[in-house]
Specification:
Number of strands: 12
CATH superfamily of the largest domain: NAD(P)-binding Rossmann-like Domain
Shape: globular
Radius of gyration: 23 Å
Oligomer: single chain
Distance between the termini: 36 Å
Amino acid sequence: MSKSSSLCIGFIGLGLIGGSVAKSIRRVFPDTEILGFDVDQSALSLALSEGTISKTVTSIEEMEDCDYIFLCAPVHYNIAYLPILKRSIKDDCILTDVGSVKSDIYKAIHDNGLSDHFIGGHPMVGSERSGYEASNDRLIENAYYFVTPSETVDADSIEAFRTFLEDLGAIPIIYSPEKHDEITAYISHVPHVIASSLVKLVADKEDESGMLKQLAAGGFKDITRIASSSPVVWEHILLSNPDNVITGLKEFSKNLDEMIACIENDNARGIYDFFDHAKDYRNSIPEHATGVIRMNYDVYLDIPDEPNALATAVGHIGKEGINLKNIGITHNREDDEGVLRLSFYDNESAVSAAELLRKLNYQVYER
């Protein structure tokens, strides 16, 4: 256990990520002094009333005594605040952020002469909801948390920050900012572009009946789920990490060209190897690992087509106090999944629901 409970910590931005980290600190280190600054006064008021923060500040200069300051606002706001922070923070204060791209913030940190103070961060978490109202005190628990220190920050400060994150329940992994941006391009940024491209491919073939939309369930809906992400967010992300994203897309395009050539040339072995290699690597990915792309926790089951069957199945879950997030009916059975889809907020709830329903003799499928 670190001595983090004696720290003074500031938060610039109390949205989903900032609010969740602040709540985690309050839960693990209840005596920590936490200062909050946000242009959203309602978020500040709620955080103060819930006891997440100790007090609000109207000016960033008021964070002059903070040991850590978390930059959790949009990156252009974070960058705009840096000259103010340079004038006001104490000598041993550590600045950190939570952004998914590091190039812009690191350039700004360097230009403002703050490299000795900066240890970048990126918790690999997310939600379809946003804002402080959606934050929770266990969002970063058991989640990988990128730690991307500048080249000149003190080694002891890096170790102290890593230990602090571990105390909060996160799993810190240390990479350079450049490597971070390369990794996230391949496992998050490029896949988002590909998912949206697949949706566009089908949308362009849609007819007036809308039948493709009705049939596009099962596997197609799974692999394109992330295409529902905010276009504003992804506009900024792609333009902030252009070199890595372009490189990844070109490599992906090369893979497609190779598959086209295999099909054109009746190269059965090449087609088999393509799918076999992908299958082996996909199956090696841990089932319940927390990655950059937000996970779904879904359970599928077969239910009879008779009155009250759906309500009965859902009712069993409610009686056990399992928090259900959403339900849906799947008409496309291409993946041998059940007709009823039950979505949960976490893996523990999904596993508990699956075990309960199996005991009640339902045919259950987990993915």
